[in-house]
Amino acid sequence: MPPFDPPKRLLMGPGPSNVNPKVLEAISRPTIGHLDPRFVELMDEIKELLQYAFQTKNEVTFPVSGPGSAGMELCLINLVEPGDKVVVCINGVFGGRMKQIVERCGGIPIVIEQDWAKAVDPNKLDETLTQNNETKLVAFVHAETSTGAKSDIKTLTQISHQHNCLVIADTVTSLGGIELKIDDWQIDASYSGTQKCISCPPGLSPVTFNQKAIDKIKNRKTLVQSWFMDINLVLGYWGQSSKRTYHHTAPINSLYGLHEALLLLKEECLENAWKRHQQNSELLCKGVEELGLEIFVKEDERLPELVTVTIPKGLDEAKVRSNLLNEHNIEIGAGLGALAGKIWRIGLMGYTSDEKNVKTFLSAFKKSLNY
Ligand SMILES: *Cc1c(COP(=O)(O)O)cnc(C)c1O
Fold first, then answer.
1. CB within 6 Å of ligand 1 — which residues?
2. Closest CA to 338 of 121, 16, 114
3. What dotted CATH number matches 21-266?
4. What span, in angstroms and rounded, lies between the C-alpha atoms of 266 and 258?
5. CATH number for the domain formed by residue range(s) 10-15+270-369
6. Backbone angles phi, psi at 55, to 5 degrees
7. Count of CB atoms within 10 A of residue 69's CB?
8. Centre of ligand 1 from the C-alpha of residue 102, in Å
9. CA of 68 to the centre of ligand 1 (A)
10. For the chain, first and last CA: distance in Å?
11. Residue 281 dihedral angles phi and psi, to the nearest 5°
12. Which residue's CA lies nearest to atom 12 of ligand 1?
């Protein structure tokens, strides 16, 4: 069998996005020990760079060893105790997954179901919390990658706090792509991913917890069900650098990559990265509309890093996608769950969000539509 030689694709789906070559180069550097003093220094730098990316001073800010779903699970299983009422806002696939995890933790989910093309409605959250005044926690998604809708998580957090609830925000597709301010917006806990807007391969999930969230975890009456995910134990490794001890072997080379990607983000500056995502998205939307197609989400709730396009009736959408992939080496995403066959998902995340890529895509898309 020959070694695997991946084709060169332009990744314009819902993630992974293309990885900056500098990040790939960093990953190929020699592996060192996960308790090597130089590695411990690298861990501290990653934490500091993640604090910048999340715009937080939270000490408990680190990458979980696992994809975005691992961060989702870590946040929920540490913060939810059996019997806790948790309001879960569902306006796409990922909110639905949070509900399932809450159930597995023995929590009682109270679901706010929303239209799948829209942001979470703050009034509905306020009403739901008024009717369920013993709720402890509210969970929502900032950037719903399954629909392309952006929710106003600053307002959702304010409402939750008025009702004495902590919040967990899914920022998997927002970190590095759109404005996100953990401390200013007072978000208590959040998890993200590396393969969406920060130009890294998948496999790590940056998380951050403020003191209120940590206090709730420290005051649990029951043990966290998962040994691997128990943050009290994970922090033995990712907590204070002077006392680090073995918990699990960190994915060392992946962390080299994350460090490099975060350095690149800092060099570009967060605000510029947000602006780049916005500008390239506007260019994409304009081009798509010029082809006579409609954008699925209305303009003020649209995610720049993931544009969803309504599929015209009678069109073989899978054929368009396979033509893009096979003839032009461009990957876009199909609709997920209830939106399968109804929309395409076109990602412009991280390193992929580049004017040249938008132009390459539009010309190929036009050909594939007529194919
Ligand atoms: C991609 C994604 C996830 C899951 O991340 P994985 O790395 O695939 O586990 C969770 N939430 C949102 C909003 C996502 O886009």
1. 15, 67-69, 72, 94, 141, 143, 145, 170, 172-173, 193, 202
2. 114
3. 3.40.640.10
4. 12
5. 3.90.1150.10
6. 55, 60
7. 16
8. 17
9. 5
10. 35
11. -65, -40
12. 172
Residues paired with 63 in a beta bridge = 206
- Tokens 């539009």 correspond to what residue? 362
Cβ-based neighbour number of residue 15 at 10 Å:
24
CATH 3.90.1150.10 domain residues, the chain: 10-15+270-369
**Cα 192-353-344 angle, rounded to 5 deg:** 80
Could you read off the pLDDT tens digit of each residue along the chain, which spans 371 residues?
999 999 999 999 999 999 999 999 999 999 999 999 999 999 999 999 999 999 999 999 999 999 999 999 999 999 999 999 999 999 999 999 999 999 999 999 999 999 999 999 999 999 999 999 999 999 999 999 999 999 999 999 999 999 999 999 999 999 999 999 999 999 999 999 999 999 999 999 999 999 999 999 999 999 999 999 999 999 999 998 888 999 999 999 999 999 999 999 999 999 999 999 999 999 999 999 999 999 999 999 999 999 999 999 999 999 999 999 999 999 999 999 889 999 999 999 999 999 999 999 999 999 999 86
- Residue written as token pair 């033509």: 323
Kindly state the DSSP code that residue 104 receives in the 8-state scheme: H
Domain(s) of CATH 3.40.640.10: residues in the chain: 21-266
